[in-house]
Amino acid sequence: MASFSSDWVRRRWLDFRNGHSIYLVFAMTFANFITIQYQLLIDRLPYWGGIFNSIWIFAILFILAYVPVSIVLGYWHRKSQWKVEQDALFRENKVGAIMWMYVIDLIEGKVSEEDRKLMREALLKITRGETRLYGIKKLSDSEGKADNKKGK
After folding, report:
1. From CA 71, how far away is CA 133, in angstroms rounded?
2. Cα-Cα-Cα-Cα dihedral sign, residues 146, 147, 148, 150
């Protein structure tokens, strides 16, 4: 029963963090941003004080302009920059590279029985929630073996 209680608390903690950071803090910082912009524009440009005599009018017009610009920038980011970011993350993912090398070596029949056991143990540890993967470092040595085999 202690495991259920611990898992329940951990899941609620995750839910709290996600709700807080993704939704509530976003909403609060957006409202704060609008308030600051209103104060800066009205203080710096008194002419706009006559147009935006209420923060609500300013907020509505601001949102009507800001949201489409954000959507266009988000679309641009997704279509152009996201690929660059994913490529960079892929190139820095050593564990992913070890896993893919293992899969390629497995397909090509180059996996030793020792490497197969080490990989299985590492994956079982992950599924059990054990965070220390002592065997995974040794698997990275098989990268060199695979490269040597290819060169021959």
Report:
1. 42
2. positive
